């Protein structure tokens, strides 16, 4: 198929009797920033390792740029990987690390040194070329790993939770940087993460993994605003589900609905209901002051609990703390109700097996 | 931790006594090698290098030293190849009986030398002799290799355990085929462990006496065996002192190097 950087068909992987990847179909377009999001043990890292060639699939096929590479060794695939632990060679300088893929491909020494320096400069480490990895901080190592993987201009770059070991500030900075590099180079990025915010921030599209399967594939907005399954609704963003009696009383339909916390207004109990809005009364069980915003956990009279997020426009911490235990009315526009299917088509219960932790994470 | 003054003194005395028990006898050997009195009378009546000259010209001691070096190098070479291979197999692959194999490899170092010696002696004579291969230097080398493998194996497997497999994956990912990965990445990272293991293996072989006695053919005498058979002879006692003194000085080198190499972390170790 033209224009597809990566194509997976019914990809499976078992470790002994545990099925880590239980049939994954996926198409990633050329130049896309694609994230594989899921909890640890959901199979996303195993899928990445199969694309890289480190694990042989138990079943299914892998195509890169239209060519079947399922049985090919890692060094026969035009993909490079940024490892979770960076895997920088400790006995080589940064220049030697970055130039390694060029050296293996017999690029002349002068040229590969120039390209390695250029790559180091692009991650702002041009003055560190003769140092060894042990002399660098975590964030610097991360950038070297990126330079090493990018210097050979692969068709596809695989990133295995590359920001996991960095502190929050650095992580946010690298998110912006990664996105910029991806846009500038046009290389397809396949990014594995368990951090939903990271996935929402950077990706063109996201696949949400659960128990070795894909629950939903879509743009960040689709994943967040229209979760296809209860799992996606719960894993991406705060789980805010109305089910059973509560759904019947509030929405008027006995099904499962998802409402995002920031869509819900917290009003006085006596406030009048507006047209086109759903509303429910309840008692504030907990108030969490977040600085810029406040999170309310409200136990509904109709049953269940909803989380509402309010910007602290005029309120202060003292004001919101006083609301604990008080009666409130929650109200939101009907268009923010999203029905969550209970039995999504991507889910085939007949093949569901026991699943262990993702072995790459242990 | 802060100790009281008496406790500090008591600990220091105990430590000094401990070291004295180990090192004073060695020092005595050194002194006696310079003692003009043939029966090592005390205190030495003077100082002489005569015994050192005698030892230098002793053909028996020279031949024994040469035999020991050959046996040590042979056993170390076998241990390096086999010990490294087993260590990689046990650390990098999963297979049925892996734990059993690693146990079986390590066991010989704990076996009493006399058991290994008798067992090898019987085996060599029943299996090799009918084939026309008698006891000789070769059988000594094989005997030593059985326990030299253990130190190489232990050193290499410890290094591999500390070394994440992602280095090798990264090399393959960047385009290096399997052999290239070994040459560029794996070998440089385990090299110092190999050298440390080899030095220890050589040292083990060099001072071995029990297994050697049972596996050496007639006319094959390693240095420890030569010392053992000559120290009872009053004529030879001073020369034995000299040889012992030389061995003490020589053993310092491999042990010092091996310690430095194996305490090196996997990262940044270079030779």
Q: Hey, roughly how much beta strand do the residues of chain A contain?
A: 25-35%
- As residue ranges, the low-confidence spans of chain A are 344-362
**SSE string of chain B, helix = H, strand = E?**
HHHHHHHHHHH
CATH architecture of chain B: Orthogonal Bundle
Helix content of chain B: over 70%
Give the strand order, joined by hyphens, for the main sheet of chain A.
6-7-8-3-9-10
Count of discrete structural domains of chain B: 1
InterPro entries (chain A): AAA+_ATPase (IPR003593), ABC_SmlMolc_Importer (IPR050093), ABC_transporter-like_ATP-bd (IPR003439), ABC_transporter-like_CS (IPR017871), Mo/tungstate-bd_C_term_dom (IPR008995), P-loop_NTPase (IPR027417), Transp-assoc_OB_typ2 (IPR013611)
Pfam families (chain A): ABC_tran, TOBE_2
Protein name (chain A): ABC transporter ATP-binding protein
GO cellular component, one term (chain A): ATP-binding cassette (ABC) transporter complex
Quick summary:
The complex is a heterodimer of chains A (about 350) and B (about 270). Chain A is α+β, with helices and mostly antiparallel strands and about 350 residues long.
